Every structure is written in structure tokens, then in C-alpha cells.
């Protein structure tokens, strides 16, 4: 009887190890995916800031031209 319990316990522990290994693989995939998303997010923030600078510069130049025309 004790031998059967030992064998069953070892089988259960082995199955737990397999499941943990599968979970670790899944977590590594998720981490890699999140890192990729964070990198893309950083790039988008930089691009958005650049676009904002360009838009403000363009609008500022346009406002100056309008002011020059209005002064005449």
C-alpha cells in the first residue's frame, strides 16, 4: 500500500513539474510580447512629440504671416 502511495505521489509531482515548465514558457512569451509593446509605445510617444513640435512650428509660422498681412 505504501509503495502505491509513493508511486502516485511521484507521478503527481512529475505532472506538476511539467505544468510549471509549460507555465514558465508561457510567461517568457508574454514577457517578450510586453517588451515589444513597450518598445513600440515608446517609439510612438517620441513620434507624437515630434509631430506636436512640427505642428506648433507650422501654426506659429502661419500665425506670423497672418499677423504681417493684418498689419498692412
Give an overview in words.
The chain is an all-alpha fold and 72 residues long. The chain has one domain. The protein has one helix at residues 2-71.
Q: Which strand-content bin applies to the residues?
A: under 5%
The level of helicity is: over 70%
User: What oligomeric state is this?
Assistant: single chain
- The string of secondary-structure elements, in order, is H
Q: How would a textbook summarize the main sheet?
A: none
What integer is the average pLDDT? 89
Q: What's the arrangement of secondary structure elements?
A:
Blueprint: H1 2-71
Brief overview:
With 72 residues, this protein is mainly α. It has one domain (1-72).
Characteristics:
rod-shaped, mainly alpha, 0% strand, 1 helix, 72 residues
Amino acid at each position: 500500500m505504501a509503495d502505491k502511495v509513493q508511486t502516485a505521489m511521484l507521478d503527481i509531482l512529475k505532472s506538476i513539474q511539467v505544468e510549471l515548465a509549460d507555465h514558465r514558457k508561457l510567461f517568457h512569451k508574454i514577457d517578450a510580447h510586453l517588451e515589444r509593446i513597450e518598445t513600440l509605445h515608446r517609439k510612438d510617444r517620441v513620434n507624437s512629440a515630434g509631430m506636436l513640435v512640427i505642428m506648433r512650428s507650422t501654426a506659429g509660422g502661419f500665425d506670423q504671416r497672418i499677423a504681417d498681412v493684418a498689419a498692412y
